[in-house]
């Protein structure tokens, strides 16, 4: 069976901010999907240990008070999320992450923050990962408009009930990935590791092009990290703010 016809796992974080090197996890979801339908879901609410800005609460709906009173200690949550992803990768189940360098880098930074083992052991590799944002941005390069998860759902006819709720976004990301495979044979016909490596190349090319555009605009911070699905350069200023997913 093709990768999009087998088990896929959607992953999404809602956080305290938009910088993957500084933000903390507030909620997370890991959703197993088969045939476009969820078959198992795990969800987490963490106490991030820092205040959640009001503007961020307005997006995902979780206040500092709720996270503090109902959330579990962040180190426990972070460790469980990482263990879940490693478990899927160990048996080569693809994890679908919309804008993977944001969520996966942020998770890896949280592991570092709490002196936990990194998401990927030294010399290892994360994956397989399917990033619908990278695939869409490459295979429909000249489409105008936003590239948020909500926008992609509209383009590919995917329902999104409760945007910015981690479980809803994780499921929608998988459904967008399946829709991309249905539309683009070059995505559907790749085996999952070939597609994974293609996305590495596609993301790097996009980041280099966007960096050049920023330089032309005179940006003082015009160099995007080219690493995918994790940042290649650690602890650098980042334009990898999440695209509204």
The shape, in one word, is globular
Q: What percentage of amino acids are in beta strands?
A: 5-15%
Biggest sheet layout: 6 strands, mixed
Percent helix range: 40-55%
Low-confidence stretches: 235-241
Total domain modules? 1
CATH class placement = Alpha Beta
Counting copies of identical and different chains, the oligomeric state is single chain
**Could you say what the CATH topology is called?**
Nucleotidyltransferase, domain 5
What is the structural class?
Answer: alpha/beta
Spatial gap, N to C terminus: 29 Å
By DSSP (H or I, 4+ residues per run), the number of helices equals: 9
Q: Please state the second-level CATH architecture.
A: 2-Layer Sandwich
DSSP summary, beta strand count: 6
Strand order of the largest sheet: 4-3-2-1-5-6
Give a description of the structure.
The chain has about 240 residues and is an alpha/beta fold. It has a single domain, classed as Nucleotidyltransferase, domain 5 (2-Layer Sandwich). Helices cover about 45% and strands about 15% of the residues. The protein is built from 9 helices and 6 strands. It has helices spanning about 55-60, 65-70, 75-90, 100-115, 130-140, 150-155, 165-185, 185-190, 190-215, and strands at about 10-15, 25-35, 35-45, 70-75, 95, 130. The chain has a 6-stranded mixed beta sheet, with helices on both faces. Helix 4 (about 100-115) links the parallel strand 5 and strand 6 (about 130). Helix 3 packs across helix 4 (about 100-115) and helix 5 (about 130-140) packs across helix 9 (about 190-215). The longest helix has 25 residues, at about 190-215. It is globular and about 50 Å long. The chain starts with 7 loop residues before the first strand and ends in a 29-residue tail after the last helix. The model is unreliable at about 235-240 (pLDDT under 50).
């Amino acid at each position: 069976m093709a990768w999009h016809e087998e088990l896929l796992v959607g992953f999404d974080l809602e956080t305290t901010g938009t910088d993957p090197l500084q933000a903390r996890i507030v909620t997370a979801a890991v959703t197993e999907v088969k045939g476009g339908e969820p078959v198992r879901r795990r969800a987490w609410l963490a106490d991030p240990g820092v205040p959640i800005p009001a503007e961020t609460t307005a997006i995902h709906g979780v206040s500092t008070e709720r996270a503090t009173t109902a959330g579990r200690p962040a180190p426990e949550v972070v460790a469980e999320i990482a263990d879940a992803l490693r478990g899927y990768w160990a048996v080569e189940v693809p994890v679908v992450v919309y804008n993977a360098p944001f969520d996966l880098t942020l998770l890896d930074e949280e592991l570092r923050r709490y002196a936990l083992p990194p998401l990927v052991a030294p010399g290892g590799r994360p994956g397989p990962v399917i990033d619908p944002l990278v695939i869409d941005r490459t295979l429909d390069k000249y489409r105008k408009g936003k590239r948020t998860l909500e926008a992609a759902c509209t383009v590919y006819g995917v329902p999104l009930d409760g945007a910015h709720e981690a479980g809803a976004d994780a499921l929608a990301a998988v459904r967008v990935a399946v829709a991309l495979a249905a539309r683009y044979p070059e995505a559907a016909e790749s085996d999952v590791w070939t597609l994974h490596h293609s996305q590495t190349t596609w993301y790097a090319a996009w980041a280099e092009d966007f960096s050049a555009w920023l330089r032309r605009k005179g940006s003082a911070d015009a160099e995007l990290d080219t690493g995918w699905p994790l940042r290649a350069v650690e602890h650098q200023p980042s334009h990898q703010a999440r695209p509204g997913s």
